[in-house]
Design a protein that fits this description.
Layout: H1 5-13, H2 30-45, H3 50-63, H4 66-72, H5 85-109
Organism: Methylorubrum extorquens DSM 13060
Protein name: Tc1-like transposase DDE domain-containing protein
GO molecular function: nucleic acid binding
Length: 125
């Protein structure tokens, strides 16, 4: 919970809960993609000693170009969102059509009502 007394009082007054922050997701941080490239280059070099790493790390940094760093922030990331307005409209129309089709199917399969003037004979004669 937040530390401020004013905020704690308001939270208690409103009977609200502090949900805290979302868990950290490295996919949303572009520097993580650059670090992943660096780690891959270091693994490929297979440097296992400190002197070898001292030689390999600058080479790995040299292979990460400005273009790599810039495009890391432009990589497509799947973010869970609500459907777009157009998609919601399509889903809405589809849902309405499905509901209408279900109602029509129920109407076709139901027995006739007495108020429809069919009397008590429900079968076809």
């Amino acid at each position: 919970m937040h530390e401020g007394l004013w905020l704690q009082e308001r939270t208690a007054l409103l009977q609200a809960e502090d949900g805290g922050l979302e868990p950290y997701n490295p996919d949303f941080n572009p520097i993580e993609q650059v670090f992943a490239k660096l780690k891959g280059l270091l693994r490929t070099a297979a440097a296992r000693t400190v002197p070898d790493l001292g030689h390999t790390i600058p080479q790995a940094f040299a292979r990460v170009t400005a273009t790599n760093a810039a495009t890391a922030s432009l990589q497509p990331v799947t973010i869970p969102t609500w459907p777009s307005l157009r998609e919601r409209a399509r889903l809405s129309v589809t849902s309405q059509r499905r509901a209408a089709a279900r109602m029509m199917a129920r109407e076709r399969n139901r027995p006739p009502r007495l108020s429809e003037g069919t009397g008590l004979s429900w079968g076809s004669s």
